[in-house]
Design brief:
Order of helices and strands: HHHH
Radius of gyration: 19 Å
Largest sheet: none
Distance between the termini: 31 Å
Number of helices: 4
Helix content: over 70%
Structural class: mainly alpha
Number of domains: 2
Shape: elongated
């Protein structure tokens, strides 16, 4: 069976896990930025208010930065 052959710390297993983690993180980023935020940022309310637009962009950048910092410990 597979549990007799699989070694958790082998270089191949680590590379495969790293690639799968990178793909899943990329899909989450895509969903967040393109599918969810794009509709909010393209709305009429945000497009007509420069102050609200600036606050929104700063909030997105701070949120992404915060998540990146938390990823250090993940």
């Amino acid at each position: 069976m597979i549990y007799n052959v699989y070694r958790e710390n082998s270089p191949t297993a680590l590379v495969v896990v790293g690639i799968l983690n990178a793909v899943s993180a990329g899909l989450l980023n895509y969903m967040a930025l393109v599918d969810l935020l794009a509709s909010d940022f393209m709305g009429e309310k945000l497009q007509n208010d420069m102050k609200l637009q600036t606050i929104s962009y700063v909030a997105v950048i701070l949120g992404a930065g915060g998540m990146s910092v938390m990823a250090i410990w993940a």
